[in-house]
Amino acid sequence: MKSAGLSQSLALLLVFSISLSPSFKALGQKRSDRGANDNKPEPTTSAGPKRTDRSIPESERVKVITKTEFVKVAVRANKGYLSVVAIPTAIVTLTPLPANRKNAPAIRETVKDEDGSLNLINLLPGNYKIVIEHPDYDPYSDTIQIDPARPDTFVAYNKMVARYGAIRIGGAPANAKIFLDEAPVAASSLTVENQNAVIPKVPVGKHSLRISKVGYADFTREIDVTPGKQAFVSAQLDLARVTLNLTSEPGARVYVGDEEKAIIPSNGNLTISLAPGNHELRVSKDAYQEWRKDLTLSLANNPVTERANLIPIPSSTEGDWQPSLGARKWRPQPIAWKFDASGAHIKGDQLALFNTEASRDFNTYRDFKLEFDVVFTNGKGVTWVARAKDRDNYYLFEISGPHGGKPVFNFYVCEDGKLELKDSRPIVEKIDSPGDSFHIIFEARGGRFDTRMTITSAPSAKPHLIGISQDDSFSYGGIGFRGKDQSDSLLQSFFVIPLR
């Protein structure tokens, strides 16, 4: 290389070395003739003499210099210059190729600069095998060519495959314990980045992470750690819960306080989780007495097992009512009704339920047969109630008319005090004779309700079937009467008998 080119090479070196590019390549040009301008014997003219050979001038030896010095170094025409960008503390070995090249021993240096650069001068131009080793990375090797009078850069740090990664944990409560593969992670080994805890130097591969703190449910996650990367985990720990294993009747509804939690499945076993503390547990099912228990749950006693044995509500016995009994056997006492020798005049929306038992608010029946005699006093029909759980939940049956329009038979379901019409069908029988009396026969069997009627003014061999209704909302309850749409009816007799 001529001296005129020296200044040009220095300028190239300065531009090249100010900022080491992350794009790595091994530069290769035609190798210069190292012995073309050297008249000395071969053993003393090698560009890469053994370091123990003190006969080689200091200026001829391979040296490690700083990056600043590398930028300013005077380029010589018969020497090579190489800056290796690797990992701090990595060991870089340059072995001349072919391996038997005379007087060209391998060069082995440690990267000491914090920026990861190793800057070498006075290299013998030619091909080299470069090997970079670091305990935290897999060994990396490549073949490079070093040209005379030309500063080369070999960027290797982004080609090296790390043996470790890291796990960054966000959201965990303070003082939580961290376990990696069930081994506790010492707090002193963690670092903090943006209020996140970081587990450094985690071997590449899959790991199980567990985070634990008293009063919280353990957080567990499988983490895949990749080379040189941070795996982020958002570890939001839930407050610890107590497991409740409950056994009861299939189909029963389970309440905690006023909140319905679940329905007992067909196998009779249910598992729910509750916060530690005091809870009222209720189990309810139609035709059974409600089961209640106050629970005090703690993490020290977890899980908890309970059995809710539901007791069937016994059906009431047969009963009847006659006008001579007046308001007796009706609860609550109907304010709008009037009682006289002819019967009970039913009017108003207040529901009154049949009652003959001092221990209950009203009699309860599952399957039953009800018969009663009634007169449509103002021609607007009659309304009766079956399977009332309370005064807001029941079935309602209505014979409407004839003065309200064409006579119809209506079937309603009342839930939480709101009536919903389920079925309506016309009545073809003539029921508009003033003062006529009607004998109603009503049967409840499971979810089916049959209503038949005989008419005093038009006797028939068999009762007329005026409606079949079906629904399974209520399986048992009380029997009663109420007015609807300003109806006024006269109840003359009443009889109920339970069916098996």
CATH architecture of the largest domain: Sandwich
Q: Which topology of the largest domain does CATH recognise? A: Jelly Rolls
- Subunit arrangement of the protein: single chain
- Spell out the CATH superfamily of the largest domain: Exo-inulinase, domain 1
Largest sheet: 8 strands, antiparallel
Shape: rod-shaped
| Distance linking N and C termini | 118 Å
Quick description:
By secondary structure, the chain is mainly beta.
What descriptors fit this protein?
seven-stranded antiparallel beta sheet, Immunoglobulin-like, mainly beta, 38 strands, 4% helix, 2 helices, 4 domains, eight-stranded antiparallel beta sheet, disordered N terminus, 500 residues
